[in-house]
Known about the structure:
By secondary structure, the chain is an alpha/beta fold. The protein folds into 5 domains: 7-46 and 120-229, Calcium-transporting ATPase, cytoplasmic transduction domain A (Distorted Sandwich), CATH 2.70.150.10; 254-304 and 680-889, Calcium-transporting ATPase, transmembrane domain (Up-down Bundle); 317-336 and 550-676, Rossmann fold; 340-532, Calcium-transporting ATPase, cytoplasmic domain N; 899-938, no CATH class. It has 33 helices and 24 strands. 50% of the residues are buried.
Amino acid sequence: MPEQKPLYSMDPDQTLRSLSVSSDQGLSEDEIQRRRDEYGLNQVEQAKRRSIAGLLIDQFKSVVIIILAVAGIAALLTAQWTEAIAIAAVVVVNTAIGFFAEYKATRSMEALRDLGGVTTRVRRAGKEQEVQTQTLVPGDIVLLETGDLVPADLRLLEQTKLRVNEAALTGESVPANKTPDPVEEDAPLAERTSCLFKGTSVADGSAVAVVMAIGSDTELGRISQLADEAESSTAPLQERLDQLGRYLAYITIGIAIVVAIIGLAAGRETALMIETSIALGVAAIPEGLPIVATIALARGMWIMAQRHALINRLTAVETLGATRVIFTDKTGTLTENEMRLHTVGGCDENIGLEESTDDGKQDLPEIARQIVRIAVLCNGASLAEDSNHDGDAGSDDEDGGDSGDPTEIALLAAGRARGLNRSQLLEDLPEQRVVDFDPATMMMATFHQSGDSIYVAVKGAPQRVLDACDSFIGNDGDDHSLDEPTRQHWNERVEELADRGLRVLAIADKSVEDVDGDPYENLRMVGLVGLLDPPRHEVKDSINRCQAAGIRVLMVTGDEPTTGRAIGRAVGIGDEEEAPAMHGSDLPSPDDMSDEHREHVRRTVVFARVSPEQKLNLVDFYQQRGEPVAMTGDGVNDAPALKKADIGIAMGKRGTDAAKQTADMVLQDDSFATIVAAVEQGRIIFGNIRKSVMFMLCTNVAEILAVAVASLVGAPLPLLPLQILYLNVVTDVFPALALGIGRGRPEVMDHPPRDPDEAVLTRHHWTAIVAWSVVIAGFVMSALMTALALLGYTDMQAITVSFLTLAFAKLWFVLNLRDHDAPLVKNDVTQNGWLWAAVGLCIALLLAAVYLPGLNDVLQTVAPSATGWLVVLLLSLGPAVIGLFAPGIRFHSQGDRHSHQSDKGANKEDQLTTGADRLDDRIESTQDQVDQLRHAGKK
Length: 939
């Protein structure tokens, strides 16, 4: 019979009856076997390991590679063995480079996945025993202690001072207090205090609980299913290269047919025209493109590895270059992931401890010093004797010496920094009794011998401590009665600190005669402490760089909105006055989202207490707006959104296996600054690949035009088929590789992201390709005609001159690939040492093509005279000289800003038809508006 309400909303006895089990006896062996047959094993399906065969097959999914393979087969069928071998070599080299780069990345990622078999303690047939977690069934009675992993979704029956670390599942940065008391049926996951969830761990205390769900029925399993169902986005670069490959396929087929028809109509030999058509078809394709793209991405992957970012897929870095929205976690990414004592508050005054002097020995007023002293005494944590906490830092020592709750470690560290060491305080005030923190009371107390009396130090939740107080220390240092108006005043002080995003604890004390008395009555309110996980020092500058680059940074956190809003203001998410925040309970589902809701979501910069489904919906919301999204995460609950995002970024230090194996990139230092470095590198990579494509296409199309014109007018072909292939492999690949690994310009982050729909080559680039191809082809044909008419060369000598003219024109042409606004002499091209090395190597290979016996026979070249070399030198320099005075067809690495603006104007009517929200999509920030005005001014 189906349950009427969730188990967590029932009391413990009702829960046990519903599951037909006794807490004292547990399940019998027969019942366990019956339930195992019904429910299966307690395991969540793990993501499949990328096989070697799968990695290899992935390398052949490029359209350009497919076209090359088809051309190679055609060459084999027509017995063009040399061409077939050359094409096969290109395919094999590209495949090998891509395979080994991704193989290394994938295996590095898998090395992070260290999941072993786990056992747990259960009570079965009246006996306690250790069993494998996968053998648990609903109704099993589970026993947990500090440090244990929660093996399934459990309903709490009994607990002793239980706190559970649920950060991996809920994103909550501090351990959650748990009680057996039932909660409301509609309670969010983070507020189901009667439940323990698979994949979390016990931070403190012990528990007896009953299994209510296993395997795929757990919250962990449900999230895993969401991740499996989430559709991964294809990397923008892969989409653009495939699109370019399809264009080139059409060009290839058209050129091969047209040239063959023209040649045959001019009476040329059929075999020669078939061979020429194959060569021209291959010439239309930049054979080096897959190699250049792969090596450029592999180098970016290597660079990011030096910056502590492990890349799972080659295209991940480039994808970040196109990103317009980054969803970032708070804890550990924007913050230090270590609690610090930030503020001490008396009755009417706050003392900010972040204003400590350089040596950390801040002179505190007496009341503030007394507050810190009590917080150090009433403490269950310990610091390593050799740990070196600077200021107020409260992090775990690298050797693991610090132990205890992060909040208490922070209080001890703050005391030590001000000369209040707990060990020294206990010498004067020996500890007689400890009342550990209890989720039921939300307080902790310690009893100390102080002369003839007992001194009691108390800390805990402000409201609970205030309720236990009947007096307080005033500004004058004297005790005063705690009347109702004063209680309200203290509550306002608590709210004031909480609104600043601080974790607030109240500090109280009293003196008693008996160590066995109730610690929580007739207390004296001493003050408040506000703790904070502080922002990383470099984060604000990194976020400012993102915003200057037109990238929106949004926070998604498991903490409360007040904490998220405060950290957001501190790091520059939002403005100094406001960081608009939204609670997960206020975030509507996609089906219920009105235009007003969409506008509200679009303006929100902090999303707090969001569920895995809501993270998924947020990613989809921005993707539907046409904006590439990056998502950071560390928990199991982040896995679906990490997979759905255009690029998923997991945390290496504190990330769960589920997050790491889903993500495209793992930050080994958990630093947001590393993401910004990847964005910059991604933009550089795309610009470099665009330069390489421009270089290869301009010169390749020039080859086609020269041969086509020669065929049309009946002149000797300026290039023979094998010469074309030699040029494409030699004078294309090496300079293109050098361009592909260029360092880029420092100004790359001064521009907004390129349009997500922008192709590798825009209309401006295609116009420039055609113009440059005509120019280069003109000089090649001029070299051929000069050699024939003026120098009286034979056909083979003249063809060698035109072959060399084109080859050297390609080499000098790289100088025209500087950015349109870059200086003439000192720019990213001329300062690329790899490029000059590539030019030198190509010159040596071209000389070998003419003078090396055997090679010159295969290529049918004849060494020109000194006059012939002069013709080659002068005419090959022609395009480079024209490039000095023709900025209109110069290169734009960040895209064609002029045509981009025109395209926006042309699409204005389409934008209007989609409603006012689509218009707002184009105006994301004041920075975007300034950029548009600037670009319009340039026009």
